[in-house]
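Record format v2
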Amino acid sequence: MENSEDEMEEDEAEWTNSFVDSSALSSAAASASSSSSTSGRGTSNKPGPGHDHRVILHFDLDCFYAQVEMIRNPALREVPLGIQQKYIIVTCNYVARDLGVTKLMSVTDAKEKCPSLVLVRGEDLTHYREMSYKVTELLTSYCPLVERLGFDENFVDVTDLVERRLAEMATESDGFSFKGHVYGRSSADVKAADYPALVLGSHIAAELREALSGKLGLTGCAGVASNKLLAKLVSGTFKPNQQTVLLPENVSDIMDSLSGLRKVPGVGHQTAKRLQALGLVSVKDLQLCPLDDLATEFGGATAQRLKNLVLGVDDSPVTPSGPPQSLSDEDSFKKMSSPQEVLEKVQQLLTSLVERMHKDGRQPQTFRLTIRRYSATNKWFGRESRQCPIPNHVGQKISSGGSEDAVVLLVPLAMKLFNKMVDGGAAFHLTLINVCFSNLQSRGAGAITSFFTPATSPGKTQAQVQDGSSDSGVIAQRRLARKGPFGCEASLHGFTRKQSSVVAAAAAARKASCSEAGRDPDDSTTTSAVTHRLPANVDPEVFELLPEEIQKELLASDFALSSPSVSDSAHMSGNKPPQTFTDSENIKAAANGFDSTSRGTGGDVTDEERPSLPRSSDCEFPGNVDPGVFSELPPDVQRELLSEWKQQKPALKTPSSRKPAARSSTSRDRKTAGRSSQANNLFKYFKPS
DNA sequence: AAGCAATAG
DNA sequence: GGTTCTATTGCTT
């Protein structure tokens, strides 16, 4: 319901055009790079009172979703506004905050606290996502090294820009002062001339915030510091719509100001719990903890990283995000327990996802379905997923406009994955479904693409890096695989020799580990996916050539008529027979039967299911369960417990001890960094299109 | 390559 | 710590 297809509203077109005139500070974009930035200091990074000469900016937009809605409807600026997703307020404007509304408050609490609160539904992220990429692209047009963090935050490495300004600056330090706040200092107290790089960083931050406001109408905070960790921490110190700089001598002040380890970016719930188990709760505790004690619990690399974090040391690079690596769509709900509903939801989600994918222009190589199951006993959270390759012809339908066809082909693929997770005969209770496309390949124009389809390579792609600093093959590959300038436009309007060569180079660079994966259009997955839905006498290849309407008819009849062989298993162990005798049972059987009904035709992948019907003996209780007690439980709960046990859900995690995980040394740097030089073009993400 | 955990907004 | 709707990275198999 929420992902209604309201797709394109052109109402924001006014902002979208003014991107390319980045004239202002922009000598930046094109040149950049090489030398400087990481001169030898990638590895030896001691916190010491030294020179971390990077200048990193962090931008954090003020209550982003609310801002987007207020732009769409300016009347909302004056009222308390909350953005609602399902039953919670995910964010709200400052008018609402002043009246006591907070983020992640339940809708009922919020209305109680603030009866005049105006609510806007925010389940459909389309507008937020579009604006989010406009922000990233605007920043990118000034400086190429922009890394996204969620929809509303961006890191920018402006080191090169600062150095260039520094070089072309005479020694006149007249009126040379910080823009915005200086953490822990009164600006009068600070001699700006002692911190020329940070001062220029604050000027750039101010200019970029000005650009965001002027061109996109958005306000937000900025932080200026020598690394990402510190930039992020300091950006939140004056809110909203302000900026602040952190001086090196105040690093320990800001770290010590954090109320607990959980506040350190990079320390999540699990890590915080493990630290607490070691008796560590404050930043100070961790700073003083011997490294070896930490290494015992976390392994050497993680131990060092955690230590560094609490000291304010972070050498992780600003890695340009580029276009997204996956597109997904999901919906949550209180309860979904029939295959019919699942089928419809999957179809609905796929319809909007395929549409988004089409607009993106790239071709997905893998598809993933994920679910979240309700569990009565435990409130156990946990998502399960299954994924599979997308047959080439299906991928082509997605990118080349045959959206309707693509959905028709993807739905059975999704149901096949669903059946790998959810046992046919057993009752189930889902609270979420997610569909995801990943492994997104840019395709140049036309046929060339198919020569390069094999999946992206693993880590062994040593793309040599000119600047000798650390730069992983993955990053280099990412950049190469990215759309060239005007990638999407160009591919829509004809062809791009240029881009093809880029793609070719990338393809050549990586190894083509490939083989079976993408090469053959009629691999087993393709065949099985289609044949499962088809009467045995229909050739899948022929099927593809049929008119869409005929295809749909065939598929529909397949659903309705599939063998009900599985449905008997529904009344296992004398439990409540499932619901009523509506045709939902038939649909369920059909959905469950993808793997079994048409098995004659194609060899098949799965077949781990269905060796025998579930008998009561399959449903024995775990040893710690008293059958007498069990029988007293509500039938509802009984069913859920049974299906849980049957699924062999993993032993519950003991909250106590974790895996020791003593790491066998080695495993040196991974992911490290990448720095690279060219301007990054994501124009397509911002075109008014 | 697949699946999941952890982290993030 | 969970609620929503995403998205990324790294570990493990």
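The CA atoms of residues 21 and 511 of chain A lie 39 Å apart.
The longest helix of chain A spans residues 339-360.
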